Amino acid sequence: MKKTFKKVVSSLMAAALVAASLTACGSAKAPAESSASKDTNTAEAGEQAGDKKVLKVAMECSYAPYNWTQPTDENKAVPISGSSDYAYGYDVMMAQKIADELGYELEIVKLDWDSLVPAVQSGKVDCVIAGQSVTKERLESVDFTTPYYYATIVALVKKDGNFAAAKSVEDLKGASATSQMNTIWYDSCLPQIPEAKIQPAQESAPAMLVSLSSGRCDVVVTDQPTGQAALIAYPEFKLLDFTGTDGEFKVSDEDINIGISLKKGNDELKDSINEILSKMNKDDFNKMMEEAISVQPLSK
To answer: Which residue from 30, 63, 155, 192 puts its CA 20 to 30 A from 230's CA?
Structure first.
């Protein structure tokens, strides 16, 4: 999975831009009466908003265009739980669609990337919608829905840098490179660059973009939505897409299929979400992503 942009992108970036519930019925149950269960703050407590059930969705809120933090509810952004800020982006748009279809209130829970899987395993949240790739490794810990996006792998370089004319992964030979930690970009793609000087993994998507912008590395590997969004916030960047050529990054379907993760065995919620996603196609996903990119925060 994953991960955003230059002030909300750099606040977020500076905050460097700024892959559940027990069961679907976990969130569907009435609130637990004891204060002890309320203190657990888990989906098992089955919290409700008035007469509506609550769908708790976790994400970083700092991974534009998938998700980001903003100070207002502009564009129907959703409040972040326990914060005065709001979350928006592709993941929030998808989460809201799912919640609306299920008749639930949506609650966004902001967590660090490495805390997402543990949160869904423990039942702290119902699901994670955060640009996670559906990998075999993650499937050992959580269940996934069918893909809610299909991501192409790309590289970002400086327009005036030594690798701006690269036409293949081979042409990036010897580049210093980095990406976000615990992603297929870092773990699987960077090692494919011949003689790459692989730098330490970055904690977040905003951090990896700052690394490229500041000249600490020559190349960042990411997915196309993140790369396209970065071009708006960083006009000095150039996106290199080798897809469909002999020189492309070698990735499997699991690397580019982006899914929603849930607690293992939470089949009721998984089936409900899959039914909603089955009514959408790649064009629908791409249109929603384009909308997210068009309204992402751009300030540095």
So the answer is: 192
Domain 8-149+258-295: CATH architecture, name and number where available:
3-Layer(aba) Sandwich (3.40)
**Closest alpha carbon to 213 in 173, 275, 263, 160:** 160
Structure tokens at 3: 């991960």
- Cβ atoms of residues 143 and 270 within 8 Å: yes
Query: Which amino acid, one-letter code, is at 133?
Result: S
Q: What angle do CA 80, 84, 86 make, to 5 degrees?
A: 45
Q: What is the CATH code for 151-253?
A: 3.40.190.10
DSSP 152-206: -EEEEEETTSTTTT--SSGGGTT-EEE-BTTSHIIIIIGGGSTT-EEPPPBSSHH
Letter for the amino acid at 13?
M
Token pair belonging to 4: 């955003």
Q: pLDDT tens track of the chain, all 300 residues?
A: 444 333 333 343 333 333 333 333 333 333 333 333 333 343 443 455 556 899 999 999 998 899 999 999 999 999 999 999 999 999 999 999 999 999 999 999 999 999 999 999 999 999 999 999 998 999 999 999 999 999 899 999 999 999 999 999 999 999 999 999 989 999 999 999 999 999 999 998 899 999 999 999 999 999 999 999 999 889 999 999 999 999 999 998 888 899 999 999 999 999 999 999 999 999 999 999 999 999 988 643
Structure tokens at 134: 């559906």
This prediction has a pTM of: 0.74
Do the first three CATH levels of 8-149+258-295 and 151-253 match, i.e. the same topology?
A: yes
